[in-house]
Automatic annotation (TrEMBL):
The keyword Transmembrane helix applies. InterPro entries: DUF3105 (IPR021454). It comes from Streptomyces africanus. Residues 1-21 are annotated as: Disordered. This is DUF3105 domain-containing protein. The keyword Transmembrane applies. Pfam families: DUF3105 (PF11303).
Length: 222
């Protein structure tokens, strides 16, 4: 019990630290945008960056796969977590991407991330935006029509309290509830499954994160 309490306390402290960092980042962003139109500024910034990246990346590809080498695969560990073994490309693209898994766990993605500061979405997301969130160290909770409403509601409440997480429906996934992080994924039986907390503890801003500390706000929202 002692070690469990210490782990829980450490996790809460880490989440609070991330929340304070996000709040500080938001305050800085507000100061930087005083006197300017948010819509105009965002349009100019996003449009300009997309233009530059699309020129440097060749505009992306309709058939860009998660594993550009074509040799990647999932390997399931003793803990039930599937780890992608293979190259996960990280190019910014402007077109649709054909991923090797559903939900995807990495690969080429849109230049704009989905907000993932405990954001719960009620409609399916564009995978290319959500994958960018995974690159920032977010855990993505997805569910299909077979998931029980009670589990969906309980998981939504958990996500809303956890920075660097997001949640959305995904009709095409094979299991009712799945958790994804960059390069890692697992299925859980429901909101009370202890593997939910274990996955969050390990992968929310975990060691797998390609861009630790990158923002989960000021991105795209529904």
């Amino acid at each position: 019990m002692g070690s469990a309490n210490k782990s829980s306390t450490a996790r809460k402290a880490r989440i609070e630290e991330m929340r304070r960092a996000e709040q500080a980042r938001e305050r800085r962003n507000r100061l930087l945008t005083i006197g300017a139109s948010v819509v105009i500024v965002c349009g100019l910034v996003v449009g300009g960056v997309v233009l530059v990246r699309s020129q440097s990346d060749g505009g992306g590809s309709d058939t860009a796969a998660t594993d550009t080498s074509g040799k990647g695969k999932f390997v399931t560990g003793k803990d039930g977590v599937k780890t992608w073994e293979g190259k996960l490309s990280r190019n910014h693209v402007t077109k649709a991407v054909k991923y090797a898994s559903e939900p995807p766990v990495g690969g080429d993605h849109n230049q704009v991330w989905m907000n993932c500061n405990g954001d719960v979405y009620t409609k399916e997301l564009d995978n290319t935006n959500a994958v960018h969130s995974l690159e920032h160290g977010a855990v993505w909770v997805t569910y299909n029509a077979d998931a029980k409403k009670a589990d969906v509601d309980a998981l939504a409440a958990k996500v809303k309290k956890t920075p660097y997480t997001l949640m959305s429906p995904m009709d095409d996934q094979k299991d009712p509830i799945m958790l994804s992080a960059w390069g890692h994924q697992r299925t859980v039986t429901g909101a009370s499954d202890p593997n939910v907390d274990t996955f969050f503890e390990k992968f929310v801003q975990g060691e797998q994160t390609p861009e630790p500390g990158a923002a989960c706000t000021n991105g795209l929202s529904q």
